[in-house]
Amino acid sequence: MATEPNQQQRASGLRGNVGFRRKALVHRPQLKLEPGNEYYVIFDGAIYVGKPIESGTESKKEPPHLAHVLFLGYTASDGQYVNGRGAEAVIILPKLLRDALTEAYPGDAYVRKAFAFEFHKHANPDKRYNVLTTLQEIEPSEAQQLGAEKPAEVGKRK
């Protein structure tokens, strides 16, 4: 029978044995952004450029831009809310979201702030990109209601 991890297990970053403490997070899972969902995240670091995508032929695509986030949850297109419980993740930032963040928050001022954003598929089926429909900063109290247990401590490193 699976049980919810207790506070000490969550703080350690490990599922089972609470006698261990996580020393470093080596890999974060990727949070795949699906069109039509509204996502709630706290940016845990600045946007950075990932490794170039290698293929058999030269590609004109630029390397992906990534960001470490604390995933608070999302609201699906049917209105159902899914709690992310502040899980550490990495997202691939679409150009529209990246440009909107860096323009509105110069000098990485978006770091340690909570945001809600939503994408929709482009109306023209020939277009391969999604359209950013909303991007809004949300208050830590709202972030707490959406799943972060201690928003004041989010993003602190030990």
Explain this structure to me?
- The chain has a single domain, classed as OB fold (Dihydrolipoamide Acetyltransferase, E2P) (Beta Barrel), CATH 2.40.50.
- It has 3 helices and 6 strands; from the N terminus they run αββββαββα.
- The protein has helices at 7-12, 95-104, 140-145, and strands spanning 38-43, 48-49, 65-75, 81-92, 114-121, 130-138.
- A hairpin with a 5-residue loop joins strand 3 and strand 4 (81-92).
- The two termini are 32 Å apart.
- The relative contact order is 0.19.
End-to-end span in angstroms?
32 Å
Order of helices and strands: HEEEEHEEH
Which structural class is indicated by helix and strand composition? alpha+beta
Compute the number of helices. 3
Helix content: 10-25%
Average predicted local confidence, pLDDT: 77
Q: How do the helices and strands line up, and which of them pair or pack?
A:
Elements: H1 7-12, E1 38-43, E2 48-49, E3 65-75, E4 81-92, H2 95-104, E5 114-121, E6 130-138, H3 140-145
Antiparallel strand pairs: 1-3, 1-5, 2-3, 3-4, 5-6
